[in-house]
């Protein structure tokens, strides 16, 4: 899957779970500050991403991931 | 809407679990109960397709997964979880083995963790859930010979309240019922002296019937209890007042 297609899929998950408009889901967006996502929102997003991409994300891998770009890179590393 | 919600009750074959199954079936819910050794009363089968029972050992994650998968295949996602299965291995602490400690904590407390972990993702996605943990007045008062049981039930309080805070924003409630002495198979193991002591200190001067407890559980899982979460509700005839 190429990056653009994967990001579109990622964006669909984020829009669905976080209830934000697609144009807000950009690489540099911070989950808490820009997307108003709390810790449970982020857990929900991870669950959605796990289902959508058929991947498994460990708790330890989420440390320090606070932007869309960080989360997308994590997903990308697992589907490559 | 609420009448068709899917309920999963552990330890539903006897006592409080059986009484709760009956009242919820009577109100139109779909009810799945678990059993380990004893099956449910045959009179619950009159509810037909809205009732099912599955074998489940709450101390075994694979067994929980299998039971819940079977229920979801028939009823759909579980919307209401009632953690009722519990065991006692009473003896004074000086005589209590590590095994007696571990097995009671494993079933009563870790079992609640396992069950909740399994059903919570779908509740979060659905933005609805009701979870009730059946504790005991012993959690707050303590009981001689029941250090393991009291610790397991007191643990449920902290677990439920943490959970309540975590998922309240998703319209999921987590509450604890704390029965006093109830006429069940479990209290039948207590000595008559102990039962007499308990009864004499109960303001209502009687032990509870399982139906006294099931009514409170049915309320906490109802639509009317939507704004009640993190509560530890004593249903004990006044026994624990002041504790």
From TrEMBL, chain A:
Compartment(s) of residence: Cytoplasm
Gene3D superfamilies: ACP-like
Modification after translation (UniProt): 4'-phosphopantetheine is transferred from CoA to a specific serine of apo-ACP by AcpS. This modification is essential for activity because fatty acids are bound in thioester linkage to the sulfhydryl of the prosthetic group. 4'-phosphopantetheine is transferred from CoA to a specific serine of apo-ACP by acpS.
Pfam family, one: PP-binding
Record keywords: Cytoplasm, Fatty acid biosynthesis, Fatty acid metabolism, Lipid biosynthesis, Lipid metabolism, Phosphopantetheine, Phosphoprotein
GO MF annotation list: acyl binding; acyl carrier activity
Superkingdom of origin: Bacteria
Main localisation: cytoplasm
Carrier domain sequence ranges: 4-79
Matches recorded under InterPro entries: ACP (IPR003231), ACP-like_sf (IPR036736), PP-bd_ACP (IPR009081)
Pathway the protein acts in: Lipid metabolism; fatty acid biosynthesis
GO biological process, one term: lipid A biosynthetic process
GO cellular component assignments: cytosol; membrane
The keyword Cytoplasm belongs to this UniProt entry's keyword annotation: yes
Record-linked PROSITE patterns: CARRIER
Residues recorded with modification O-(pantetheine 4'-phosphoryl)serine: 39
Family affiliation: Belongs to the acyl carrier protein (ACP) family.
HAMAP family in UniProt: Acyl_carrier
Role noted for this protein: Carrier of the growing fatty acid chain in fatty acid biosynthesis.
Protein name: Acyl carrier protein
Higher taxonomy: Bacteria, Bacillati, Actinomycetota, Acidimicrobiia, Acidimicrobiales
Gene from which this protein is expressed: acpP1
TrEMBL record, chain B:
GO molecular function, a single term: 3-oxoacyl-[acyl-carrier-protein] reductase (NADPH) activity
Swiss-Prot/TrEMBL GO biological process terms: monocarboxylic acid metabolic process
InterPro entries: KR_dom, NAD(P)-bd_dom_sf, Sc_DH/Rdtase_CS, SDR, SDR_fam
Pfam families for the chain: adh_short_C2
Domain Ketoreductase: 5-185
Enzyme class: oxidoreductase
SUPFAM superfamilies noted in UniProt: NAD(P)-binding Rossmann-fold domains
UniProt keyword list: Oxidoreductase
Enzyme Commission designation: 1.1.1.100
Stated family: Belongs to the short-chain dehydrogenases/reductases (SDR) family.
Alphabetical list of NCBIfam families matching this protein: PRK12826.1-2
Name assigned to this protein: 3-oxoacyl-[acyl-carrier-protein] reductase FabG
Species the sequence originates in: Acidithrix ferrooxidans
GN (gene name): fabG7
């Amino acid at each position: 899957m190429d990056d653009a297609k994967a990001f579109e899929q990622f964006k669909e998950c984020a829009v669905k779970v976080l209830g934000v408009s697609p144009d807000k889901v950009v690489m540099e967006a911070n989950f808490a500050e820009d997307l108003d996502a709390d810790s449970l929102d982020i857990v929900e997003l991870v669950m959605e991403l796990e289902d959508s991409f058929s991947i498994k994300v460990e708790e330890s891998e989420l440390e320090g991931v606070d932007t869309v770009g960080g989360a997308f890179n994590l997903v990308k590393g697992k589907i490559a | 809407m609420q009448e068709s919600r899917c309920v999963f009750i552990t330890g539903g074959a006897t006592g409080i679990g059986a009484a709760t199954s009956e009242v919820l079936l009577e109100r139109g819910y779909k009810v799945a109960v678990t059993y380990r050794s004893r099956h449910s009363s045959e009179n619950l089968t009159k509810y037909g397709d809205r009732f099912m029972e599955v074998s489940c050992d709450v101390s075994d994650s694979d067994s929980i997964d299998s039971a819940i998968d079977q229920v979801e295949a028939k009823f759909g996602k579980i919307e209401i979880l009632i953690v009722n299965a519990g065991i006692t291995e009473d003896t004074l602490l000086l005589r209590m083995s590590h095994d007696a400690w571990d097995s009671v904590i494993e079933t009563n407390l870790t079992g609640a963790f396992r069950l909740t972990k399994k059903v919570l993702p779908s509740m979060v996605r659905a933005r609805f859930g009701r979870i009730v943990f059946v504790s005991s007045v012993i959690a707050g008062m303590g009981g001689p010979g029941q250090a393991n049981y009291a610790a397991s039930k007191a643990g449920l309080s902290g677990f439920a309240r943490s959970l309540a805070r975590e998922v309240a924003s998703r319209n999921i409630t987590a509450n604890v019922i704390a029965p006093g002495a109830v006429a069940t198979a479990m209290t039948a193991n207590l000595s008559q002296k102990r039962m007499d002591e308990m009864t004499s200190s109960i303001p209502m001067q009687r032990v509870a019937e399982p139906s006294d407890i099931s009514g409170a559980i049915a309320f906490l899982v109802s639509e009317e209890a939507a704004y009640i979460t993190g509560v530890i509700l004593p249903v004990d005839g006044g026994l624990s007042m002041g504790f």
